Amino acid sequence: MVKRTEPIKVLVVDDSAVMRNILTQILNDDAAIRVVGIARNGQDALQKLSRLSPDVVTMDVEMPVMDGLTAVKKIMAVNPVPVIMLSGLTARGTRETIEALEAGAVDFITKPAPGAGVEDLASTLTTKVKGAASAAVQKCTSGGRQDVIPVRSYSQTGLFSVVIIGTSTGGPSALQQVIPKFPRTFSVPIIVVQHMPPGFTGPLAERLDKSSELKVKEAANGDEVMRGTVLVAPAGKQLLLEKNAGTVKILLKDNVNYQTLFKPSVDVTMTSAANTFQSRTLGVILTGMGNDGTQGATLIKEKGGTVIAQDEESCVVYGMPRAVFEAGQTNAVFPLVKISQEVIRLV
User: Fold this and answer.
1) Residue 36 Cα to chain centre, angstroms
2) Cα-to-chain-centroid distance, residue 186
3) SS3 90
4) Active site residues
5) Number of domains present in the structure of the chain
6) Does a structural domain hold residue 3?
7) Are the CB atoms for 239 and 269 separated by under 8 Å?
8) Distance in angstroms (rounded) separating the CA atoms of residues 311 and 295
9) Disulfide-capable partner of 274 in 140, 159, 237, 299 (CB 3.0 to 4.6 Å)?
């Protein structure tokens, strides 16, 4: 990756003058970032986009004249640029944030509650802006390469009992291109681990359920892991699997004996799946920042299971798949458009 020499140019879009000022001050306090403009709504942002040529746009969800969701769809259709959504924890805010992520926004941040400090917002905002600046929004929406890049031969086909999909930045959009492609007759349960704060994994599951033949739901404690079902790990919890009397059920915990920054963590769930299903575990690593999933994928391979990953060209952020690939723990790498058909073929 080429190191940037110029500050990241940001366009701040929010209907609140107070919030615009807060965001601008936070971003300009970081020497690696420079706010090049502000906009009061989506329409204002679209008019300023071509003139200012920002590297990243921060976009409020709920605004008059043109809301953030509508603006994101127009930006991605005309002049794709990495967009970070700023969402309130309202029903409309969470729903439209998920839709914006599906439409091409690369990430999102929840606004602080009224009266709360902005210290956490400052740290999160600058980190996500820096990550978004290198996101490949065009490559993600175009579907990437169509060829297959073999890494190692498969240890098995047709012998899997569970599929674990791990993803982070760019995940909601990627999952909409994977989960709905599974037929109603798909014979193996799927568990999805998507990095998200509390309040968003439920709406994500509902959106996926509406567009899928399989039943998609946010996992609850004690849910049976069964065929025909996609379980989405709830934010704020660690999802483990527990085998008892011939059935495997979901066990949700606040904390586990594993050092991780994420709740849910891909490593935690993949490790639990590998210990439960051994060689019958199929791991899938999709777009995302960081290296969560590498340790879990390593154990899946040690137990004789299989791991496939999304290729660099179709990722929004080639972090998690890169980490697993460079650790030598992938059996094969595929563009996003071929992930589902490869899982179907293997199962």
Assistant:
1) 28
2) 23
3) coil
4) 168, 195, 292
5) 2
6) no
7) yes
8) 19
9) 299
Where among 135, 168, 183 does a domain terminate? Answer: 135
The number of residues making up the chain comes to 347
Instruction: Round to whole Å and give the CA distance between 251 and 34.
Output: 45
pTM of the model: 0.91
Distance CA 38, CA 23 (A): 10
Show Cβ contacts of residue 139 under 8 Å, excluding neighbours closer than 6 positions. Answer: 313, 314, 315, 316
Sign of the dihedral through C-alpha 54, 310, 207, 296: negative
pLDDT tens per residue across all 347 residues of the chain: 556 789 999 999 999 999 999 999 999 999 999 999 999 999 999 999 999 999 999 999 999 999 999 999 999 998 899 999 999 878 888 999 999 999 999 999 998 876 666 777 898 999 999 999 999 885 334 433 344 444 445 555 568 999 999 999 999 999 999 999 999 999 999 999 999 999 999 999 999 999 999 999 999 999 999 999 999 999 999 999 999 888 999 999 999 999 899 999 999 999 999 999 999 999 999 999 999 999 999 999 999 999 999 999 999 999 999 999 999 999 999 999 999 999 999 98
Q: Which of 202, 231, 201, 200 is nearest to 214 (CA)?
A: 231
User: Which residue, 112, 135, 158, sits at the end of a domain?
Assistant: 135
Distance of CA 69 to the CA centre of its chain: 17
Report the SS3 class of residue 16.
Answer: coil
Structural domain contains residue 335 = yes
Residues 108, 111: Cα–Cα separation, whole Å: 10
- Return the number of other C-beta atoms located less than 10 Å from residue 255's C-beta: 8
Question: Residue 121 belongs to a domain with what CATH number?
Answer: 3.40.50.2300
Please name which of 212, 220, 158, 216 lies closest in space to residue 188, comparing C-alpha atoms.
158
Site of tokens 């904390």: 255
Amino acid at 130: K
Same domain as 150, residue 131: no
Calpha distance 100→106 (Å, rounded)? 9
Handedness of CA 15, 21, 25, 28 (dihedral sign): positive
